[in-house]
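[Automated response] Your request has been received and processed.

Submitted sequence:
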Amino acid sequence: MDNRILGKYEIHERIADGSIGSIFKGKDTKKGSLVAIKIVHEEHSNNRVFSANLRKAVVQAMQLEHPNLIKFYDVGEYKNRLCYVMEYVEGTSIIKQTLYRGRLTECWSLDIVTQIATALEYANSHGIIHQNLTPNHIILNARVKIGDLGLPIPEKADTTAIAPYLSPEQQKKEDLDTRSDVYSLGALWYYMLTNSIPFEKLNLQKLMDGSLEQSLETLQRYHPQIFWPSCEVIFKMTHKEREYRYQNFTQVLEDIEKVKRGPFNLPNKIPIKKFRHCFCPSEIDVRFGKIAIEKGWITQEEIEECLNYQEKYALAGAIVNLGQIMLDQEKITPQQKISLDKIEMEQLLDQIDAGFLEEANAHHLYPKDKIQELKKWQKQGVRGVAIGLSDQQPTDDKMRETILATVKHKMSIKKAKLMLETAVEGELLTQTRFDKTIRIYQAHRCFGRFVSVEEIILERGFMDKTVMAALKRAMARSELTGKPALNYLQER
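Generated structure:
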């Protein structure tokens, strides 16, 4: 291949292939800078209508200058095929980022959407509609870069892959305006938050002919992890009727700033101050929080703030773990979040291993030399010893069950006693029922079984489920914030 194109550009290696053409890395010989050169496939170059529209779109895009838009430099022909020259950008597309790393955090997605909306607001003010905003066309670099701005889609192209990001009016081949790009950005944002194709579980044919009835309720049913405030904005951006969407990107950016500022305004129908509407942080959440506090990464006041966000999300139908909340609220760094995941698992395995080996040794469940060998491994940092042993067939199944029950008992008894005492002090449980719960618990222990205090209370009808949920919430929050559990019961 002749490596000179349009007089001043050199073509180097091929770096990508697309539906319209192939992209090559190149060099501007006059400026000495790298460029990206796209050579349009022959079938599209020979289509006079499409090639004329594409050339016109590139010329229009060449007039724009914005830090979030990939710059177009030149357009012409190479060996009778249409070609155009663009800014060379290194980075990762959103599609690759989600493929390798999973869904994006809310904070990151908000930053990306803000940059895209700002760039499209600028482009739309110059009369240019993107028309093809998909995860493949967004590059994550030091800043977000948007590619293929305003370029037409070949009439006979297979749009199955991009259909979820095209507005209903674009599917119907109606005239487009800013609101079409608003729709596409909403669908793209949805993808970033969920790592799922928008409306993937719905009817693709209805999506492609523009007859699909989208609703926020449907989106949350399939992807409850979408945060309520972001979901409200996405819903308005992707409304089927463009009259009910945001009418321009200025309006979109205004609401995104409200989401960023928080705390989020949830619908009035969620009465979060009553027992019947209560969210309890999980044991994993509590372990995450305690580790972060012990490491000095977050204060108890900041933990409570994160717990409040978590509860609001949960009451709106989105269950998000506390570690993710801390990251989204920028209380911890991504590296600290990775460390939290690792430390939490290590501590849990250490706790299980220690208890299991102690009881296995006391009851002579395994040969003494085997136990000593495993303890040696444990001291050397090997984890998961108990899991490995539990997979082996012991000499006495009944004894093995007893040991497992004892391990669970040792891991939970301290919290169980504190919960019962708090329940009595908070007048949620009578002293008589307190005593009876203890006797039933001890009876199960005598028979080598483990039944939690919570299970006993609920099974016997000593406490309503909603009251138990409020009690557990109070205990979890108290453990993380250092405040008396009764404070949280009184506020509800």
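Summary generated for your ticket: The first helix runs from residue 42 to 45. The chain has three domains: 4-87, 92-261, 283-490.
If you did not submit this request, please reply to this message.
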